[in-house]
Amino acid sequence: MPTNSPLNAHRLQMLVQLDSLGTVRAVADALHLSPSAVSSALAALEAETGTRLLNRVGRRVELTPAGRGLVGHGRAILDRMTTAVAELRTSATEPAGSVRLAGFSSALRSIAIPALTELRRVHPDIDVELIELDPQDSLAALRRDGCDIVITADFVDAPPLVDPEIIVQHLISDQIVFVTAAPNGSADAPAAADRRAVNLAEWSDRPWSIDMPGSYLATLINTLCRRAGFEPTIAGRFTSYQLQLEHVEAGLSVTLLPSLAIDPRYRVRALQLRDPATRTIRLAVRATATTAARDAVVRLLLRGAAVGTPIYGGQASANGA
Fold first, then answer.
1. Helix, strand, or coil here: 27?
2. Contacts with 52 (C-beta within 8 Å, 6 or more apart), sequence order
């Protein structure tokens, strides 16, 4: 029989994390606990609610329908608790508190850091932790409360995100450009943009540099090259845009990059594609996790995008063009 005591928030958090992460061990690692401690806490939550929340399947556990229902309520409850604590710490006139902002590297450099420089001036009591995450990982981190705000990017031709628990707002559109080494002895500035449009099929016999398998950028390059009728020959795999640009600058590869990633310190040429491709950069937050500090950061990010985000190379547009 259930007791009349209120739900234990820490145990509820474990159930929510289990839904996001999939295994007891993953929850234990995320919360710096032992798997047995997590299992005991989840068993206590079942006793607390008087309801079977988990089914044991071999050495794994799965949420029951009741468990999934409690997870939905649990996310909202935990977000409301976070909001309540944040409001207690915030004065009537000045937002304060901690905000975790996640995004991919070029967005953090070109969008987040300029906004946070302004944030420090206008809201000195807000502390922001920046977290570098691939766009394919950021929304999952947001859903499991691994961050408060994410700057993410849609794949080319990807359908829009539809999730009632997530609020998504447009930041900018970022053009995909073909990148090759600048000609030797060129008087052009580093990262010079060329008006000549590139047919990717004409570069099918060149070595390519690319990100790691399964990453956002690797998927993007493979998709566009296959659309042009060929599989790229891979000469290098890099998680760092800087290493990738150095490889291209040395004439060892060509590649495709978003305009935000083109760094003017490297002597490369960014060329427009004959068949234009654009990624959409968006800001996302959980609908139930609002705080004054989070909303202040969101406003500055949106304002920076609206007035023109500082970028490297190419052209980015706040109008979706």
1. helix
2. 46, 64, 66, 67
pLDDT tens digit string along 154-208? Answer: 866 666 666 788 999 999 988 999 999 998 744 344 444 456 789 999 999 999 9
User: Beta-strand (E) ranges in the chain?
Assistant: 54-57, 60-63, 97-103, 126-132, 149-153, 166-181, 192-198, 207-210, 233-237, 255-258, 268-273, 278-286, 316-317
Domain 9-87 class in CATH: mainly alpha
Mean pLDDT within 237-250: 94
CA distance 269 to 271: 6
Total residues belonging to the chain: 321
The pTM (predicted TM-score) of the whole model is 0.66
Rg value, the chain, Cα: 23
Strand partners, 97: 126
User: Nearest-CA neighbor of 56 among 29, 30, 34, 24?
Assistant: 24
Question: Tell me, what amino acid is at 256?
Answer: L
Which fold is adopted by the domain 93-321? D-Maltodextrin-Binding Protein; domain 2 (3.40.190)
- List the domain boundaries for the chain: 9-87, 93-321
